[in-house]
Amino acid sequence: MAEKDGILSFKKLNEFNYVSWKQDMIACLTSKGLSDFIDSKHVLAAGSTPADTRQFNINKSKAGGMIFLGIEDKLKCILDGISEPDKHWDKLAKTYEPKSKARIARLLGQFHLAQMQPNKSIILFLNRIRQLSRDLELVGKKIDDSDLAYQMLCTLPPQYDVIVSQIYKWPNGDMIPTKVEEALIEEYENLKSRDQCTKSSNGDNALSTTGIDR
């Protein structure tokens, strides 16, 4: 998410990616010590020296410039006449932050219907569930940790049936997303290892059979 040669390394803001863009931009500003400038309460301290004032204004300009460069060209007109980075931030939030009931319903549907496809990476699936949960929280619909943990379990393919059955026997206090993730990822690695061993064994058997035929 760093800036390289004046170009941000994450996707610019468009009409559809505000939630992920906001997270990326905050991380980018934070990495450069500029995230305070999107808060209207961040002002120059009383009694600041001329050098402090100059540096404050330089950093404020940098923050505003990064936000401006981080949006697609066709959207930059939204910020016309606005120079302060905190006002940039507020304007974009008011324009694109999705908090409508339709948006919440759509995200809830995606969250509850998310399914992991057989032979796909469970790590990507769990990240998807986590991202949907964060998106819902940003629009004011926080998913309870236990609900998040159960959602990670209830739509997995059959090869995870054994570990899922074991997890369902855990005490209620252990049914938290981080522990469920750890158990599922460990099982994913075990399944991969067993699959590789099976393929290797089948290959050896094929070679052995070929040798006998000769």
Can you identify the CATH class of the largest domain? Mainly Alpha
What proportion strand? under 5%
Strand order of the largest sheet: 1-2
CATH architecture of the largest domain: Orthogonal Bundle
Rg is 25 Å
Query: What's the number of extended β-strand segments?
Result: 2
Oligomer: single chain
| Count of alpha/pi helices | 8
Level of helix content?
Answer: 55-70%
Sheet having the most strands = 2 strands, antiparallel
Which features does this protein show?
2 domains; two-stranded antiparallel ribbon; single chain; 2% strand; 214 residues; elongated; mainly alpha
Characterization of this structure:
The protein folds into two domains: 17-42 and 52-97; 101-197, Non-ribosomal Peptide Synthetase Peptidyl Carrier Protein, Chain A (Orthogonal Bundle). It is 61% helix and 2% strand. The protein contains eight helices and two strands, in the order ββαααααααα. It has helices at residues 18-31, 50-69, 85-96, 101-113, 122-138, 145-154, 161-167, 177-213; strands at 3-4, 7-8. It has a two-stranded antiparallel ribbon with strand order 1-2. The radius of gyration is 25 Å and the shape is elongated. It starts with a strand and ends with a helix. Residues 198-214 have a biased composition (Polar residues). Residues 195-214 are annotated as: Disordered. Pfam families: Retrotran_gag_2.
Secondary-structure map with pairings?
Blueprint: E1 3-4, E2 7-8, H1 18-31, H2 50-69, H3 85-96, H4 101-113, H5 122-138, H6 145-154, H7 161-167, H8 177-213
Region (Disordered): 195-214
Biased composition (Polar residues): 198-214
